[in-house]
Design goal:
With 379 residues, the protein is mainly alpha-helical. It is built from 15 helices and 10 strands. Helix 2 crosses helix 3. The protein is elongated.
Amino acid sequence: MFKRARHQFGWLEKRKRRRGPEVWVWRYHADVSGSTGTKPAVVVGDVTRYPTKSEAWKAAEGIRLAIGNPVQPDLVTFGGLINRFLREALPERKGTADRYRSWILNHINPRWEAVPLSKVKPLAVEMWIKGLNLAPKSKGHVRSVMHILFEWAMRWELMEYNRNPMSLLKLKGLTKRVKQPRALSVEELQKLWTHLDEDTRTMSMVDASLGLRASELLGLRWEDFDWRSLRVKIQRSWVYGRVEAVKTEGSERWLPLDSNLADILRRHKEKMPDELLKTGWVFVSPFTDKPWWAHKLVRYHLRPAAEKAGIGRIGWHTFRHTYSTLLHAYGTDMKVQQELLRHSDIRTTMNIYTHTVSPALREANSKVVRMILPDRKTA
């Protein structure tokens, strides 16, 4: 029985290196031109990452599945599928990849790693998700990742092409928030701004006036602004210290730039030192010559200022929710709201606004901006 397993799954061995710790190497019989004599070797990882042989075997399974090493379907574990997904199929966007990795390593892998893929049944998964000590929305994320993993299992031919078993799950209320997102009143916004330094105040004014995601705000460059037409194009994100595409295809578009906000941005540009202005970034750290990191601004600027203003705990997304709430308070048409917020469910017929800013969008945006920002003539 043991010999048969060795032939079917290959074998692991340790290999010394000139420098660094020993590495685990997985070897297997390969059929090349009708001969099974070749024994290719694949480095799984070093002993610091996989201290025990059992841990190295788990990692090797994902590699084995990736190269098509033959195995009976019932012997493919869910952990093997997970390992291959983490190696080959994580989204390119770093923030999304980090979230997927977190859900997998902290919740999915500990429960299902050793279970054969064919034994991961919908009802068992449904009961497991219901029992997780997570918020409803977080449980929804876990279910979504499980669905994605099964999609890849079918793509890699590790199971029959069929209906995704995770589509059979009956879970209600997963989109319900335990805590409703915070939106600030006009008075709270203006009170907050009295406690912020000039740069962070400008950033928060831009965010509250355009409803941007934090990564989009920090990804702004001066070349994105069309001052003559008073508009700005959102076309990149700054995520964990690197430039990435915006969250969705519908997020990349022109937005109206109210004249009050344009004046604030021009003054910000005039005050920037030449060495920072040359970087092209609108909101750039003098310590790195690159955009600020969003979470550090929250920790050291936004939240301390919010505490002083007596408005509670906030973050960058608070300004996006505030913008949305104020648009709704003005009775703005829902299609105009979707266009200004650039939600992913915007209908294709609304893409006519990609290169222009309609009067309806500009009017709705200006109503909010004129309410929250001081008049440029009296500021």
